[in-house]
User: What shape does this take?
Amino acid sequence: MPTIGYRRCMSGPAPAPGKRISLFVLAMMNAAVVVGLEGLPEVGAFGLPLIIYYGFFTLCFFLPVGLVAAELGVGWPRDGGVYRWIREALGERWAFLGIWCQWLQILVWYPTVLAVCAVSLSYVIAPSLHDVGWFKVFTSLSIFWVATLLNFRGLRVSGWLTTILLYVGTLFPVGLAIALASWWLLDGRDSAIPLQWADVVPRIDSIGQVVGIAAIFSFLSGLEVNAVHFRHVDNPQRSIPMSLLISGILVLAMSILGALSVAILVPIAEIDLAAGTLQVFQAVFTPLGVAWLVPVLAIFALAGMIGHIMVWVIGPTESLRVAAEDGLIPPAFQRTTEGGAPRNVMILQAVIVSVFCLLMFFVDLNRVFYFLTIASAQIYLVMYLLMFLSVIVLRIRQPDVPRAFRIPGGLVGLLIVAGGGALTAVAGIVIMFWPPETQAMKMSGAVFTPALFGVFVTILVVPLVLYRFRNPAWRDRPGLPGVLETRTSWRRGD
Assistant: This one.
């Protein structure tokens, strides 16, 4: 986000036009998009009630996002993804706002996942480097710039590498953490949290606690990235909802059990939001005398985080390049590399992320980690709100556009799914202005609310101002590489 949380995402090379994707493969791709290491410590701090929380967010948000992205993806499959969908329904102004929010939330998310990378590398080299500012900054900058330069070659080079890194570096460590926690309990060892059925029921005494829970939005986001692949399945009207059901079960199982593995093995007060999953391995392997395995697994975790970064480095930046072709931002951002990557947008992104990473010298990592998670979730929900509205508008205004998949139930079913998702997004945006009350972060409303409100308003105003001063002469400037000239070997997935 991705997560996104990561929340966080995976979109390997798109299949050739004649190649089909099986229902199982699509379900696994959807699961890999959502499940990530960086969110497990934060969610694990909720304890057993996270089972209820995840169930609610899956029903009201995760599945609606998948169903809406499926209908839009097969109906309007051209490059630009979310930007194209919103533009078709609501116009260029709101499309630009939507993709701007998607891009900005990724900028906010990068420092959090780069912090996980730095911590993972410190476990490999020397755990004492965990809290050393220069090491975190140097590692973060190095990884991000290398990921950017690799993506200059386009997805033909980075796609399969990204896919391998995500499976090996995310799904394997999460599965292992779950297995270790299960063995720990079956061996009769003590859990760091109570494991009684009565403790599954949430006890919510304040709005601040709800805000902390709302961070789960970030860890169930990103399914729209796979929308381009939905048109490559046989019998999409059946396969797409089935794949979403299967992936929903996988996401729930891995996210819930992965987060609980952290909570079971690491006392909540000691959970490090950037290193929680590695703390699980350390808590088990050190008493067993095989602590040397922790650096090995840290390498796997590092690989998974790099895979997430590589996907998102070239994701929303390409949508911004498409917006540049429409003349919404200066024509310099239409430029691509020989591999078809949006060069100048990616360079601008790398510079901004570099500035964010330098803040690690001056601020408490856990505090920033949690604040950025909430801020990125709130920003992302604006884009989702526009996406939910777009699918409703397009079903009404353009009912005859061929769609291999439609949300079942006609207009009523669409309003239940997309309308319910939109209401959930609005509720999430509003509720997040309250200061959270969690073990990881306790901030007074006098500090938290103005800071978050300032960030939120600034992010929304900037694209509207840019749109106001757009220049029609910027559209499709001659002399710049064209889409067909530069992208004969790859396609984006979002």
Remarks:
- The chain is about 65% helix and 0% strand.
- Residues 1-18, 478-494 have pLDDT under 50 and may be disordered.
- The chain has one domain: 2-486.
